[in-house]
Amino acid sequence: MPIVFFYHMYTADVILRYFEAGNYYLVTSSPPSIAMQNNFTMLLVTVPSSVTALIMNIINAFKYNTFKEKKILPVNRIKFYFGFSLIFLVALILVAVHQLIKYYATASGDGNLKGTATVMTHYITALFINITPFFMLFMSKGFRNEFILFYSPLLAKKLKMNSQVIVP
């Protein structure tokens, strides 16, 4: 997907630019039209993703009572999934707002705002990359057990005795 969405970057010139307001250097594309295309492409991804997640969370909220009444899943697990969905939705909305700010900064020529937003991109990316594996471990007991069995032989022996996880 990135190859298709960011095809325009293959011929773009890249420059190192100093931002006085933050006292740092950033790598940026030299024609502003390339930066506008990048920001617009990210908006095309983040805004629909946020809207889709919002719709799905609304559906989940309505189905929550059904699951709770029919006792299909334990209430604690449902609450955890619902909480995770809300956290993910807020994160998607923040990324979409961030992309709107970058788009505005590029369109208006506000270099300092664009520089600050670009630096924030690195923090947001690092946060998502580092938090996602932990969410996966917390979400699924089966996945967590497999993770422990694979990476920790000492814990795996104890886990094998206390669970029904079968290791080939």
UniProtKB/TrEMBL annotation:
UniProt organism field: Rhabditophanes sp. KR3021
Protein name stated in the entry: Serpentine receptor class gamma
Domain of life where this protein originates: Eukaryota
